[in-house]
Amino acid sequence: MTSYTESEERQALRREVAKLAGKYGREWFTEKARSGEKTTELWLEIGRNGYLGINIPEEYGGGGGGIGDVAAVCEELAAQGCPLLLMVVSPAICGTIISRFGTDEQKRRWLPGIADGTSTMAFAITEPDAGTNTHNISTTARRDGDAWVLNGRKIYISGVDEADHVLVVARTEDAKTGQVKPVLFVVPTDIDGFEYRQIPMEIVSPELQFQVFIDDVRLPADALVGDEDGGLVQLFAGLNPERIMAASFSTGLARFALDRASAYAKERTVFRGPIGTHQAVAHPLAQSKIEVELARLMTQKAAALYDAGDDATAGEAANMAKYAAAEAACDAADRAVQTHGGNGITQEYGMAGLLVATRAGRIAPVSREMILNYVAMHSLGLPKSY
Ligand SMILES: Cc1cc2nc3c(=O)[nH]c(=O)nc-3n(C[C@H](O)[C@H](O)[C@H](O)COP(=O)(O)OP(=O)(O)OC[C@H]3O[C@@H](n4cnc5c(N)ncnc54)[C@H](O)[C@@H]3O)c2cc1C
Questions:
Q1: Ligand 1 centre from 236 Cα, in Å?
Q2: Mind listing the pLDDT tens digit for each residue in 105-140?
Q3: For residue 179, what pLDDT is reported?
């Protein structure tokens, strides 16, 4: 029979991660963000406990689990008010791509640090001029003897300041077809020609976004991950996990918002009975609870399909999950703020920051419009619109 609940092992993992993150909590997280500090302590603790690299193969220092496991970790951290965006990037995207397409030597070099958190890897695909249209990226990789020379610009790259390396998506210069021929390189953040500048964002998070400048960065042959002609398959191996993780990040934030809102609605009294007595307050929260649970179910389905090796079906489910989760999270955050009245927009209660954090989920890593384009075309068979 098909099971609609996660395994006992997965549920235990969720409880353990929630307990660990609960020691830190939302106030700790926002304090770090506001004082310009990092969440390294939490990052390293989840690394030491084997949660960060739970999806990385065991022989390279990981837990040998799947995307479903690392997504559960990501969701539980966010549900405790400690969302770690770099989980989406380092173990899930970079860890997956290197595990699937790296050479044995590359796996030995990079995966153990990604798994235990001592060596974080950022991921850079977005460019200022290409934006959503990643087929238009212009960061180029040119061969020079045995080496590669990289040139280009990237934007909104998360966590470059905390990363030792960035997995950069470039294209080979001789791609004549007009189709993207992506190639992936691991670039050390301290290499000559690699510079980055922080983009001031309105998100309350210790994890920051950067513009990246890549000027004649010279890389050895073994910085190339996967096959030069491997194409989109290699990239998509990382993008489905990215969507599943982004969905989990959103549902975690939504759960956090709803927990806080429900607790407040049970306590705050201005007329007869607590405000949660009034259906105008209770129903929007109940509606969000339903929407979040639906999004979680689709996220778990996408992860199960991906972990079963069904990349194609997982792609549709991962897109749908990411869409549903972002929408549910935006609404949950908005309703949670409303439930708090004026307190909803004070720094003390820290709810308003969730509006921007959840809103980012509608834009990144893939926008709601592009998911609707995908579903219209792939699921409904409508003509391609872009
Ligand atoms: C907090 C945050 C963290 C990020 N971290 C990373 C990271 O670590 N690495 C990385 O590579 N990138 C990262 N990004 C970038 C992110 O993936 C992009 O912002 C996103 O893909 C959208 O691209 P854009 O901002 O250039 O928007 P644009 O492409 O300029 O799009 C603007 C708007 O137009 C819409 N639009 C464009 N084309 C169409 C179309 N054909 N049909 C319908 N609507 C369309 C879009 O949906 C969007 O609403 C991050 C972004 C944010 C906000």
A1: 17
A2: 999 999 999 999 999 999 999 999 999 998 889 999
A3: 61
What are the residues whose beta carbons fall under 8 Å from the beta carbon of 244, sequence distance 6 or more?
A: 67, 71, 92, 299, 302, 303, 306, 318, 321, 322
The Å distance, Cα 75 to ligand 1 centre, comes to 22
Whole-number pLDDT of residue 178: 59
Cα 128 to averaged position of ligand 1 atoms, centre (Å): 10
- State the Cα–Cα distance between residues 239 and 167, nearest whole angstrom: 13
Could you give phi then psi for residue 257, rounded to 5 degrees?
-60, -45
pTM tops 0.85, yes or no: yes
The residue contributing the CA closest to ligand 1 atom 17 is: 365
State the amino acid at position 314 in one-letter form: A
Beta pairing partners, 199: 209
Token pair for 188? 């050390």
Are the CB atoms for 328 and 295 separated by under 8 Å? yes
Instruction: Report pLDDT for 89.
Output: 97
365 preceded by cis ω (within 30°)? yes
What atom of ligand 1 comes closest to residue 368's alpha carbon?
Answer: 47
Res. 352: pLDDT tops 90:
yes
Asked if 152 contacts 140 with a C-beta cutoff of 8 angstroms, the reply is yes
Helix (H) or strand (E) holding 361: helix 353-363
